[in-house]
Amino acid sequence: MKPPANDSFEGQVLALLPSLRRYSRSLTRSDSDGEDLLQDCVEKVLARRAQWRGLNLRGWVLTIMTNLYRNQRRTIVRGSIDLDDAAELPAPEVPNDPLERSRLKDALNGLSEDHRAVLMLIVIEGYTYQEVATLLDIPVGTVMSRLSRARQQLAEHMKADNVITLRRPK
Length: 170
Description:
It is built from 8 helices and no strands. The protein is mostly helical. Helix 7 packs across helix 8.
């Protein structure tokens, strides 16, 4: 079976997978949940191909993913895991600098969903303020304020955890 051509609808969706994967993981804060969201999104995109109007496929797909995530958040109630059952969970991969990666992950997870979505779309995915406003169906001014607040919260969190006392107090 040969791969779909890049100019076909399927080929264009396939080319979007890396950025869709990053965005889904940033929304869900989990690799496995992000993969589930990505698969649900691709399934919906392919099933609703006839609804695409031929303009800005990436924006259309990201809007579908954002709406899927919001709908899942409304219906899913997360349960807790017993400590004995947690031993069977896979261990996360070891980062290059565990402390720095952990601090950044904590800082990102500390952001509200709205702030995190705007930050990831602009900083990681490279969208303009207007494109993000259109994708999330919010005013441009709201995008700008959410981005500013997200950056400020990240900076404060990273700066606050960066103080290490190397000497004993006198």
